[in-house]
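Let's practice the habit of predicting before peeking. Look at the sequence and jot down your guess about where helices and strands might fall. Then scroll down.
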Amino acid sequence: MADICKVVSLTVSMLLLAGHGLAADKLLWKPNVFERYSHDEDIKDVLRNIVRQNGNQIAFLPGVEGTISFRFANMPLQGAFNMLMARNGLDHRFDAVANTVTIGIAGQMPRSVARRPELRDAPVPKIRPAQKPDFPETKGPTAASASVENPQGPRQKTEASSQRTGDFWVNSAPERLPEIDISTKFRLSGIARHGSNRIAFIDGREYEVGKSLGNMRIVEISSQAVRLEEETAKGVQPYILGFSARPR
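Done guessing? Here is the structure:
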């Protein structure tokens, strides 16, 4: 009888410990540094970036909303996360099995949260940079060959021909046009450092160097602005996209 009581007592203790572990999974933080420049940015986008850099997925309960303007500089991931939690009256639960952090309003979090992570937290496939088009084709009248001036160096003659149509191409570097500011057309809400790279948040979406924004291709992301280029018939058209105002 004593042995049976010991077995029952041990079983109950193990169940209690297991239940406690499931109800209070601990979120372990990487020693990474968080850097971000936000201006009236959706708080969910900032939290999403913090949690993603820690290697976790994220889900939001109803009621999590608001914007922030802040410059995160050399701040640990956990410190940035805790600051946003405290300043905005939020709380979180971590499910180690699903590797998901669920965020909701403090005092309104359910005991157990069974939510699937956001679809936008799935790995984003890499988009290859758009290939530069071939140099424009210049039609000759009817001649099988033609002479054109070489724009580089002394006035040298370069001859090129086509066997089928007598067309010829001019191989010269495209002209670079004056830079155009597009800060009023697109909204740059944040720039974050992710490892050795930077991510820009434009109109609520994430962009890296090499990705396309309309017909433009992102060629540089600095701490203050994004530079883009577009191939046109007149040459390379550069653009710059900056913050509309400095964050408070």
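How did you do? The two ends are 71 Å apart (CA to CA).
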